[in-house]
Amino acid sequence: MLPYILSDQMHLIEAGQLTDQTKNTFPLTLTTGGDQAEERIASLPLIDGVEFATAATGIRYQNRSDVMLVRLCADTEVVGFFTQSSTRAAPVLDCEFKLQSQTASPSAIFANSGNANAFTGADGFAAVKRIAAGVATELNISADHVLTASTGVIGEPLTPDIGKILSHMPGLKSSLSPLGMGEAARAIMTTDTFPKVAATEIKTPSGPISIAGIAKGSGMIEPQMATMLAFIFTDAKISRMALKTLVNEANSLSFNAITIDSDTSTNDTLLVAATGTSHHPELTRKSDKWPQFSHGLESVMASLAEQIVRDGEGAKKLVRVRVIGAANKIDADRAARAIANSPLVKTAIAGDDPNWGRIVMALGKSGAKLSCDQLTISIGGHPVAENGQVATDYRESQVADYMKGSDIQICIDLGIGKASAQILTCDLTHEYISINADYRS
Amino acid sequence: MLPYILSDQMHLIEAGQLTDQTKNTFPLTLTTGGDQAEERIASLPLIDGVEFATAATGIRYQNRSDVMLVRLCADTEVVGFFTQSSTRAAPVLDCEFKLQSQTASPSAIFANSGNANAFTGADGFAAVKRIAAGVATELNISADHVLTASTGVIGEPLTPDIGKILSHMPGLKSSLSPLGMGEAARAIMTTDTFPKVAATEIKTPSGPISIAGIAKGSGMIEPQMATMLAFIFTDAKISRMALKTLVNEANSLSFNAITIDSDTSTNDTLLVAATGTSHHPELTRKSDKWPQFSHGLESVMASLAEQIVRDGEGAKKLVRVRVIGAANKIDADRAARAIANSPLVKTAIAGDDPNWGRIVMALGKSGAKLSCDQLTISIGGHPVAENGQVATDYRESQVADYMKGSDIQICIDLGIGKASAQILTCDLTHEYISINADYRS
Predict the structure, then answer these.
(1) Sign of CA dihedral B92, B177, B303, B431
(2) In angstroms, rounded to a whole number, what is the distance separating the alpha carbons of residues A263 and B336?
(3) Which of residues 121-160 of A touch B (CB under 8 A)?
(4) pLDDT 10s digits, B281-315
């Protein structure tokens, strides 16, 4: 199995061995969040066989696009990963069913923002059916080949708005264009403050393979086996099974390794579509370009995941929590998540306060096996705690200065074994409360 | 086993069958929080054989008492329950060891606020030893019979302050008095805004049995098998084993059924001391007064637990989450905790927003078995969701009015089985962020 570049780089960085060349292979951290969104959109590649259209239906938001239609060329392979919530929304259950029972490839994806169509009973399923039928009629395909996704308020019926949505179908069809991916990223936003896109290109003798994706998500983010809405497209030729394996591996290190507020959505949906329109022969584990493709897919997914955290509701800081020295992978993940989800750790970070005792508290409640005497905590490379107490040369003012930055790295060695994990999160600020308490998001 | 009165009353209230008499048996909800603290302190009973003293040592806070000394008469039985954190503080480990290996009864309890003496390594244990020795010398008892507890900042050495603490020992000894329990409740406060006390009396032909207790806690509250600091005293004659059984039962329904911020302290300590000085014969399961004593102990613990939640950092509302119809007890607890710990549910409550979709989300991520089609949610008795969608006669304005109150009841029927659970929590407000991000608490 291909080692994950991000993890490897963390080790290299920690060991001071990261060469410039390795650094350039993969952006460990996006230098910026929203302020470079327009540049990222401008440099999106076109994926042959994929067309986008958007419209402003006014379901919930005014004066902005809120639905997205994607048409996929024939024989596109699509794999999907979804929330593990037991109150999964109607479009999620519909996608799962269609992908499991698919006889032919999906031909279209339709998404709306502003209404999650979750916990909407039989009416919710009827709404999905009517939307899929509307798309199918317009594009002259089977409704079984239309996947849908929704994001927004839970529990509000979507039925009253179906008419509005259907009235936009002819307009959507006529505006389908390979150029529309950036606008599609805007159409799926809810409390997001910037559209999230990422892309990469793998050079091959028979021409490039492109991978590009969009995502949305800002609150209700601790994906379980999936993400918020994310749609990734590639022109690679690859079998459905091979694609599924690759996406599954990358998922555990990208979308499944982030948390904003420990809350898991009813609607998390990740769809990855491979059109097979590139000139490079089919990718298999034996292909020369398999490692590069795998790495490219991971880098696109990791970038989108990081953008989601960077745009976490109210977030001012991106926090990378890395745990090493764990007895096993589960313990490493548990320890990292306990820190990443602790309101007290996250508020301390918001306040630029190197209150590392709260990290000790979070580790203590995590259930992960640890040795107090061997436990090491560093913040931004500064040793903070070691051997069961404050580090000998700990200077609080030094760490307090580091905490004023917008990218915070916390590294913990549990001192037990060799397993490691990394979770991205953000700080917990007044703005999170404002967004979620002061008005309905 | 004695059914828990609080739970029974919930059922009766839901069924509209609660008589005035039953209502008076146990205060389901304290009508107020801090504004009646002084009244509660004024009506505390004296527990024969228990004396209190406090002092202001200035370890962290200025112009307020910050240490508490309790002297217990000979043959007092003491049981303790502690945090299950794997980074337990030195005084917690010391208490556990002393209680497990006790050959005679503990004779004194010493507590300090402002410094948790947690993750302080060998120095932390040395600090506990020096404090216990100081108390022992002053009271002319063995240091093995001195229990200590600490609460405050994690990771800061207590050693530099031991001199200050020890210098107050003579003064503490000379001011020991059965009247000092209220001041002791003040001395253990950290971010608490009011002292927490509760008491009850069981009438018997041979005179009353009294139970009274104090507690502190406001943040870092999701106790695992224990609580923040709580000290409960009774003059009942009861064996250590019988007391332990009763406290364990009551604990799971009081201190272990609350959460403020999902964070578990390194220092949670509950000590219950029975002096045996009342005139009533030894209490056993066969005693006439056993049910009343058991209920009395539960009511004191439940009241203290509720006061902790009511004084949750930044809290404006007390929220009672009740789950019924669960497949088993674990699922009921898991579902209730998922709601009680969800930042999105708690911010919605802070904003008086009946955004019940977030409750659906929390149930979905909880892992508890549920039936969407049978799931019922009510808020303040108003049906909100049923049969997998919004309730037929749901009026949002009605529930929004209810949400403006300071006591919120959320009831969920998972529609699967017969198990139930109840968790008390509070809302998540701007003030929680201020308290924990704007300065070090």
Answers:
(1) negative
(2) 14
(3) 121-124, 153-157
(4) 999 999 999 999 999 999 999 999 999 999 999 99
Half-sphere exposure of A85 (CA within 13 A, CB side): 35
Among A153, A194, A216, residue whose Cα is nearest residue A36: A194
Q: Encoding tokens for residue A133?
A: 């039928």
Which three-class secondary structure state does DSSP give residue A253?
helix
Residue A43: other Cβ atoms inside 10 A: 11
Give the Cα separation of A61 and A222 in Å (integer): 25
Chain B touched by A388 (CB under 8 Å): yes
Angle at B267 (CA atoms; ends B215, B175), nearest 5 degrees: 50
Model confidence band, residue B372 (pLDDT cutoffs 50, 70, 90):
confident
Question: pLDDT tens, B145-194?
Answer: 999 999 998 889 999 999 999 999 999 999 999 999 999 999 999 888 99
| Catalytic-residue membership of A54 | no
Determine the residue type at A170.
Answer: P
What percent of chain A lies above the pLDDT cut of 70? Answer: 91
Which residue of A433, A435, A438 to mutate against B (max B Cβ within 10 Å)?
A433
Q: What is the mean pLDDT of residues B12-25?
A: 32
SS (H, E, C) A34-61: HHHHHHHHHCCCCCCCEEEEEECCCCCC
**Helices A90-100 + A121-139 axis angle, to 10:** 60
Which residues 6+ apart lie within 8 Å of A110 measured at CB?
A: A67, A68, A69, A70, A131, A132, A135, A146, A147, A148, A149
- For residue A334, CA distances in Å to A188, A337, A375, B208, B268 come to 31, 5, 16, 50, 21
Q: Is B263 on the interface with A (CB under 8 A)?
A: yes
Query: Can you say whether the dihedral through the CA atoms of B262, B263, B266, B272 is positive or negative?
Result: negative
Q: Tell me whether strands A77-82 and A269-274 are parallel, antiparallel or unpaired.
A: antiparallel
Strand A269-274, strand A229-234: pairing: parallel
**Interatomic CA distance for residues A289 and A207, integer angstroms:** 12
Cα B146 to Cα B168: distance, rounded to the nearest angstrom: 16
User: Which residue matches tokens 């659970």?
Assistant: B421
Q: Which domains does chain B have, with CATH numbers?
A: 1-30 (no CATH), 36-310 (3.60.70.12), 318-438 (3.10.20.340)
- Cβ–Cβ of B364/A85 closer than 8 Å? yes
pLDDT digits (tens, 9 = 90+) for A63-116: 999 999 999 999 999 999 998 888 899 999 999 999 988 767 899 999 999 999
Quote the strand ranges of A144-195, DSSP E. 146-153
Q: Which residues contact A11 (CB under 8 A, 6 or more apart)?
A: none
* Amino acid A32: pLDDT: 61
ipTM value, please give it: 0.82
pTM exceeds 0.90 for this model: no
Cα nearest neighbour of A266 on chain B: B361
Cβ neighbours of B45 (radius 10 Å): 17
| Distance (Å, whole) CA B241 – CA B215 | 23
Give me chain B's average pLDDT, please: 88
Amino acid identity, residue A31? T
Distance from CA of A81 to the nearest CA of B (A): 16
The ranges of chain A with pLDDT < 50 are 1-29, 31
List B residues 92-121 in contact with A (Cβ-Cβ < 8 A): 116, 118-121
Helices (H), A207-328: 240-253, 290-310
In angstroms, the CA B350 to CA A439 distance is: 11
Token pair recorded at residue A89: 């929304």
Two tokens at A372?
């107090």
Name residue, tokens 């507590």: B111
Neighbour count for residue B101 (Cβ, 10 Å): 8
- Going from the C-alpha of B42 to that of each of B31, B180, B187, the distances in angstroms are 17, 11, 16
Dist. CA A94–CA A418, nearest whole Å: 41
